[in-house]
Design a protein that fits this description.
Layout lengths: L5 E7 L4 E7 L5 E5 L5 H10 L3 E6 L11 H8 L3 E4 H6 L3 H11 L9 E3 L4 E4 L2 E7 L8 E5 L2 E5 L2 E2 L2 E2 L9 H11 L7 E4 L9 E2 H7 L1 H4 L5
Parallel strand pairs: 3-4, 4-5, 5-6, 10-13
Antiparallel strand pairs: 1-2, 2-3, 7-8, 8-9, 9-10, 11-12, 13-14
C-alpha cells in the first residue's frame, strides 16, 4: 500500500520542543514544523530523508518554538510561515518585551508568509490545512496533513497549553479544542511537548481521557 505521509518527531533544545519533519513520499517535498533549535541536527535529518523543504511552519510565535527559524531559512532557502495574528501581535515592541520576560528568549523575526484560517498549502501530493486555534496565543494554529494533526501547544496528550502567558485565554482555548474534536476520532494528534503518557495520541482518545475536553466541553 502506498504510504501517504512520512512523519518524523524530534525533541529539540533545552525546552524539549517537538519539531516535526513531514515528507511527501512521492515527491520528497516537505515541511518542517516548529524548528526549535539544534539546527544542524535537523538539517542532517532533512538531508538523510532526501527531503526538499518547501515551507518552515510555525504553530505560534513563542520563542521556544521558533529558535531555529533564521538559521534553517538560510540553510534551506525556504520561507517562514505563521498565522497573521501572531505575526502582527508579537511584532509589537511592548508585547516582545513582555514575552521576553516570560520565556527568557527573544522572539522570532517577522514571517515571510502570513497564514489565515483554512488556508491550504500544497506540498508535493499533500495538502497542509491551517486551522486557527487561538487560546495559547492569539494566532496559534494546528496543521492538518492527511489525518495527522500537529497541535503543538494547543492540545497535549492529556492536557492543553498554558493560557497565563501574554495573549492567552482559557475560554478561547476551550473554543478551539471544541473545534478540533469535530475532526474524525482516528485523527492522529502530534503535540508540541511530550508531557503525557505517550508522545502522540488521537482525537478519539483525547475525547475520552483529556480533562480539558471531558470536563470543559463534553460534561
Amino acid at each position: 500500500m502506498t504510504q501517504h505521509v512520512i512523519v518524523k518527531q524530534i525533541p529539540v533544545g533545552s525546552f524539549q520542543v517537538m519539531t516535526y519533519l513531514v515528507v511527501c513520499p512521492q515527491t520528497r517535498e516537505s515541511v518542517i514544523i516548529d524548528p526549535a533549535g539544534d539546527e544542524e541536527e535537523l538539517f542532517a535529518l532533512i538531508q538523510s530523508e532526501e527531503a526538499r523543504i518547501k515551507y518552515i511552519l510555525n504553530t505560534h510565535a513563542h520563542a521556544d518554538h521558533t529558535l531555529g527559524n533564521a538559521k534553517l531559512k538560510h540553510l534551506l532557502s525556504a520561507p517562514v510561515c505563521m498565522h497573521e495574528t501572531d505575526d502582527q501581535f508579537f511584532s509589537d515592541r511592548s508585547i516582545q518585551e513582555m514575552s521576553l520576560k516570560e520565556l527568557g528568549l527573544p522572539g522570532p523575526d517577522s514571517a515571510d508568509i502570513r497564514l489565515k484560517d483554512k488556508d491550504v498549502l500544497k506540498v508535493g501530493m499533500l495538502g497542509v490545512e491551517v486551522i486557527h486555534t487561538p487560546g495559547h496565543t492569539p494566532g496559534s494554529v494546528c496543521y492538518l496533513i492527511h489525518w495527522h494533526l500537529f497541535t503543538c501547544d494547543t492540545l497535549f496528550v492529556g492536557a492543553a497549553g498554558r493560557t497565563d502567558l501574554i495573549g492567552g485565554s482559557l475560554e478561547t482555548l476551550i473554543e478551539s479544542l471544541e473545534k478540533l474534536i469535530g475532526l474524525p476520532k482516528e485523527t492522529v494528534v502530534w503535540p508540541g511537548h511530550d508531557y503525557g503518557t505517550s508522545p502522540s495520541s488521537t482525537i478519539g482518545r483525547e475525547m475520552e481521557e483529556n480533562p480539558y475536553i471531558t470536563d470543559f466541553i463534553l460534561d
